[in-house]
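Render CAAX prenyl protease-like protein in 3D.
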Amino acid sequence: MGRGPGWQAAFAVACLAAGFLPVAVGYVPEGAARLAGSFAVPAVYLALALATRRSAAMRRYWEIPLAFFGLALFVLADRYVPGFLTADVLHSPPITGNPLASTARGTVVVALDELVLTVLAVVAVLLISRSSPASISVRRGRFGRAYVIAIVGLVAFYVLTFRALSRSRFLPVHGAVGLGRYLGLTPALLVAVLANGFLEELMFRGLLMSRLNVAFGPYLATFIQAGIFASWHIGVTYAASALVLAVLFAFPLGLIGGYLTRSSGSIIPSSLFHAGADIPIYLAFLSYTS
């Protein structure tokens, strides 16, 4: 960045904090404070991006706060727009008046709903910055090692997840999942994991990593986005130990996704690999369905 390693380190820490802030607001008790914070965070990031764009010294970095605006905009929409879905669908028993609860369709609806919200947030950022989808690696890219790793990984996760069902206590499934049921759940399972894999890769390896690269270069940008990605998983509700999930699962997955995206020039391989890694998690969701 031209301002010395100390300044770069401070900026990296600031980016890590900025990336975590949108989800940190969710830890505030429900009420006026959380509502105000949820709207204030994207507004501040957008204002900061526009102010940075007007600064001759900082103009080249203005799309970094704009990327954080996109992440915060998604969190805002996800927190308030589809609340009637996410609160009562995933790994929930049947609920009177909610036909989606405890159904495979409900899990798929949530995944597709969040995919749409992500795409809308990213499109808003691209429109503001007048950038193309290719600038955030939304393209076919180079077919090579990254694609092979991604496809092999997706298939391996699918096969090994079923093999682990009968011999591992690390898959928190509800009830027995035999081969017939596993195959029956496969269409919903694949739709859900592919949707979630793509939306998270679009945000973190596509939008965020590409913008951080301007300030930090490829290697440090990859580590920063992986750290932010991991921080978003600290508060998940589907893990017995969210911190362990963030450190041992989400952070390495963020690094692998960064590598696959950089190697191919596309988020498609990282999305496929990410989808495979999500199979055990979404199988746990779907195991609650009748």
